[in-house]
TrEMBL record:
SUPFAM superfamilies, A to Z: Phage tail proteins
Protein name as annotated: ATP-binding protein
Protein's UniProt keywords contain Nucleotide-binding: yes
Entry annotated with the keyword ATP-binding: yes
Species whose genome carries this gene: Salmonella enterica (Salmonella choleraesuis)
This protein's UniProt keywords: ATP-binding, Nucleotide-binding
GO molecular-function term, one example from the UniProt record: ATP binding
InterPro entries: ATP-bd_sugar_transptr-like (IPR025601)
A Pfam family hit: Gifsy-2
Length: 55
């Protein structure tokens, strides 16, 4: 039997991908991804930035 935390984690990943995900093409391969913002106030970066969380 799978660990309950692992099961919950998988369900939340699927839900996030379905609700917020968009299809992006990286090197000719399509992936589902969501945007993530970096704020200068929260880390050692200067200025804001964006990244993709790929599922």
């Amino acid at each position: 039997m799978a660990d309950l935390f692992d099961t919950l984690n998988e369900r939340m990943d699927v839900l996030t991908a379905v609700r917020f995900g968009v299809t992006v093409s990286i090197n000719g391969t399509d992936y589902i991804a969501v945007e993530s913002d970096f704020f200068a106030e929260f880390g050692p970066v200067e200025g804001s930035g964006k990244s993709l969380v790929v599922f």
